[in-house]
Structures are given as C-alpha cells and as structure tokens.
Amino acid sequence: MSQRPSFETSGNGALTTAPVQERSVSPAPSTKSRGEDYVYFERSTEEFSSDAVSRATAAKLKLESYYKLAVDAAIERNARRVELEQKINQGVIPNEAKEREIRKYRRLESQYLRLRRTKIRLSDFRTVKVIGKGAFGEVRLVQKVDTGKVYAMKTLQKAEMLKRDQLAHIRAERDLLAESTSPWVVQLFYSFQDPLYLYLIMEFLPGGDLMTMLMKYDVFSEDVTRFYMAECILAIQAVHDLGYIHRDIKPDNILIDKNGHLKLSDFGLSTGLHKNTDGDYYKRLLEQDKQKDSTRNSVQVNAIHLTMSREQIATWKANRRKLAYSTVGTPDYIAPEVFMLKGYGKECDWWSLGAIVFECLVGYAPFCSENPSDTYKKIIEWPTYLYFPEEVHLSHEAEHLIRSMMTWAPQRLGVNEIKNHPFFYGADWDNLRYIAPPFVPALSSITDTTYFPTDELNNLPEQLETVEKVGSDKDLAFLGFTFKRFT
User: Fold this and answer.
1) Which superkingdom is the protein from (predicted)?
2) CB-CB contact of 443 with 258 (8 Å)
3) Pick from 75, 100, 98: which is nearest to 87 by CA?
4) Is the Cβ–Cβ distance between 131 and 449 less than 8 Å?
5) CA-CA 20 to 30 A from 154: which of 15, 172, 233, 417?
6) In whole angstroms, what is the distance from residue 260 CA to residue 148 CA?
C-alpha cells in the first residue's frame, strides 16, 4: 500500500503533514451477486410537504432560466468574436486598423458584461408625466436618473395580467420588442419587474399617434395618406418577418417620432404565426361591453344604421379616446375572421390597415357605431355595411385599394400586391425613412408632450398605485421577463 501526505493542525495552529495510508476499494458487486438483504433506495417526493415540493420546483425553474440566459449570452459573445476573427483573416479589415478594431471589440464586450451585471429598478427612473392610460396599466414619460435619457415606460399590473389571462400576450410583446431591431418598430431598451408590476422601458416618440392627428385634421389628402400608409406597410411587414401577427393595428398604435416618421407600437395582442388563434379574446371583451349596456339589443338589425349621421360620427369621435383607454377597446379595425373564430393568419393585419386608409380619406372608421357591439356585427356582415359616402371624393385607385384589403381573407391582397398597387405608384420603398414627411413635430424640449392628450391624465399621481400582489408561485409565470438591450 502506498502512502500520501495529509494535512493536520498542530497545537499551535500550524499545518503539519502526516502519512495517511490509502485503502484499495474493491469494485461494487454486480446486481446478480447482491444478496436478499441488499437495501434499495428510491427517490420520491411523496413524504415531502407541498410547500417543499413547490419551492424545489421554483428553484429548478429559476436555475434553468438563469443558466439558459447565461449560455445564450455566451453563444452570442462567441459569435461576435468569430465574426471579428473572420473579418481580420479575410482581409476585410485593413492591417493598420486591426489593433484598433480589437481594442474596440474588447471595450464593447467589457461594457456588455457590465450591463449584464447591472440590476435595473424602478428607482432608476424619474416620472416626468403620465402620457397614456390603458386597461391594464399606464404609459409614463420617464428620465433615467444617472444618464438623463428620456424613455416611455409602460407599466402592467401582474395581478390583472393573471386574472385576464394575458400572460401569452405580454410575453409575445416583450419577445417581439426584444428581437426587433427594425427602424419601423418602437425600440425596447429594458424590461424588468417587481412584486406588483411589469415594466417595459421603450423609446419615447414625441410626435404623438396617428389617431390624435386624425382627430385634429379630420381627413388627410391622398398624398399624405399614401406616405403614412406606405410607412405602415413596411412596419407591419417587419413584424410579420419576425414571425408575429400584430392583431391590433389601429391609429392609436401608430406613433410618430421626432422626425415625423412612423413606428408601430403596442404589441399586447400580438401572437406568433405558429400559435393557435385567440379570437375569443375579442369575444370576451365584447361580452363585457354587452353586460355594461344591457338596455341595447345589439342583435336587432334596426339598431344598426347603414350610414351614420354627422352627429353620430361626432359622438363616435368624442368617445374614441375613452374607448382606447377602456378594457373593451375599439374593434373598428379588427378583421372579420378574427371575430368568427375560424382561424386566421397575418392577412388580418392588412384588413386593419385597409380600415385605416378608409378613415384617413373619409374621416371616420368604415364600421363605426355608437358602441363596440354594433361595430362587431357590422364587421361580421361587412359586405352589407361597407359603404363609401357619395359626398367624399375618392380616386378609383384609393377605393380599389380599400376594397382589395377589406375583403374575405382568401381574396385579400398580400404585402407585395399592396406595394405594387397603383395607389402606391412611384413609392420609393427603400428610402421612405429619408423622405421629408408631411408633418414634423415642433418640440421645445426632449420632454415635450404637446402632441399627447394628457389633460385628462393630469390628476394621476407621480407614484404608481399600490395594487394586488401576486403569490410567489404565480410569480414564476413572469420568469425570464428581464431584458437589457446592448447598444
């Protein structure tokens, strides 16, 4: 037997060595040679309490999420290193610039690791003003305390998300924004959470939204409509290319940046193209609306008018902003196949855009009614209710485009057909973002909210209200929500 030294502690605390004999270990007997008295141990959680099991499950999920993110980040870092090495080896980078590029790469990677270690909290942002309020939360203009940069912060109540079964939708919104680098989609910089709220920190687009412009100018000329709708087409195409359907294309969700160009926002109803439909979401909202207004029978045909009087249109416009803030929302732009629960794809977004084209040129949505339930019925029976008023002059190309987009899904135009439609003749699709827009917001500062209807939101407190807290078990549903964009 060989001897090897081991360390022992002497009386004065010093380490001394003492010989230790190694013992040979005989191999374990095979299963066949085990006797009847051999004890077998089986792992089971039956004797553990339900609390212990749930804690173990939570720990497992958290560890899996942590290491998945760490591995994904390592893969991305390695890919960036390989890309730089290939550029150097292939001579893409001149010899005199190699050292400079390597130093730049190391500096950026160091900043990236520092950002990953940084924990983003609500206290890192100062509220400037509340600029929007929705069914599940608010949108605030905030300023980062350490850098002074301005962002739009969207807050969502966790408890409400769970109650209304909106987890898949908020996850789709977060994932889409995190994946997107398109100039046509609002950019997400951070996402984080606390026990009460989810937070999305996005770029602030100070020009307001298209709905505010439509309410101000009533109608657009065909040239102005052509410009804005061309930009919307590229924005929707960018979302589809990421593998998502927006499902909530409406003027409220089309924002205007400081240069006057458009970006698509609010992906709270988005879904992946590979997922099953969720059209019953709209059904539930409409059922809520019917319960609130039980005196009106939305099934009776005589309660729905083929055309609306100017007074009714004015009422619709006055209530338009309130509907945007309500839980029910407005179904004016939703495609019929979404309501009919027979399955749908990305073509439903082109119906919505067709409805916006109609509103830009006519002055109101094609199926607007005094309440969402009537609008729902009109859309289902759209061949009867799609009507172009005689007093509004539309070119043949404009009307044909609207009819080609607002039709049954199998006959509806796709993105390439829309781009090639005569209405968009001469559109420079590759350079739209470099063309002077018809309207550029006049801003007095980086926190100017002139183009947001904030009058009705002035009474909201600066601090977020204390809402219902979700339990630790339900909080696992929001695991992996955190995101930091490295720019």
Assistant:
1) Eukaryota
2) yes
3) 98
4) yes
5) 233
6) 23
Tell me the C-alpha distance between 138 and 467, whole Å: 13
pLDDT of residue 462: 67
Count each helix (H run) and each strand (E run) in the chain, helices first: 15, 12
Q: Specify the pLDDT at position 50.
A: 78
Record the pTM. Answer: 0.75
Structural contact between residues 162 and 137, judged by C-beta atoms closer than 8 angstroms: no
Amino acid identity, residue 179?
A: E
Phi, psi (deg, nearest 5) at residue 287: -65, -40
- Dihedral sign from CA coordinates of 199, 201, 206, 210: negative
Catalytic residue among 51, 165, 218, 248: 248
Count of CB atoms situated within 10 Å of the CB of 432: 18
| Helix pair 210-217, 310-325: axis angle to 10 deg | 160
Local structure of 347: helix, strand or coil: helix
> Is residue 248 annotated as a catalytic residue, yes or no?
yes
The answer to whether the annotation marks 346 as part of a ligand binding site is: no
How many residues are there in the chain? 487
Q: Which of 291, 411, 265 is nearest to 350 (CA)?
A: 411
Nearest to 269 by CA among 360, 135, 178: 135
Q: Identify the sign of the CA torsion 40, 43, 49, 50.
A: negative
Res. 263 pLDDT band, cuts 50 70 90: very high
Q: At what angle do helices 372-380 and 280-292 cross, to 10 degrees?
A: 140
Question: Which token pair is 388?
Answer: 């172009």
Q: In terms of DSSP bridges, do strands 137-144 and 188-193 run parallel, antiparallel, or are they unpaired? A: unpaired
Q: What's the rounded Cα separation, in Å, for the pair 387 and 112?
A: 55
Residue 326 CB-density burial (10 A; 0-12 exposed, 13-18 middle, 19+ buried): middle
> For residues 134 and 265, what is the distance between their CA atoms, to the nearest angstrom?
14
What is the C-alpha to C-alpha distance for residues 406 and 412, in angstroms, rounded to an integer?
7
C-alpha 372/C-alpha 351 separation (Å) is: 18
What three-state secondary structure class fits 254? Answer: strand
Apex 420 CA angle, 417 and 425, nearest 5:
150
Say how far apart CA 424 and CA 227 lie, in whole Å.
9
Q: How far apart are CA 203 and CA 150, in angstroms?
A: 8
- The alpha carbon of residue 353 and the mean position of all alpha carbons in its chain are separated, in whole angstroms, by 19
466's CB contacts (< 8 A; 6+ apart) are 196
| CA neighbor of 228 nearest in space, from 437, 440, 441 | 437
Q: What's the whole-number mean pLDDT along residues 119-135?
A: 86
Among 306, 307, 368, 375, which residue's Cα sits nearest to residue 339? 375
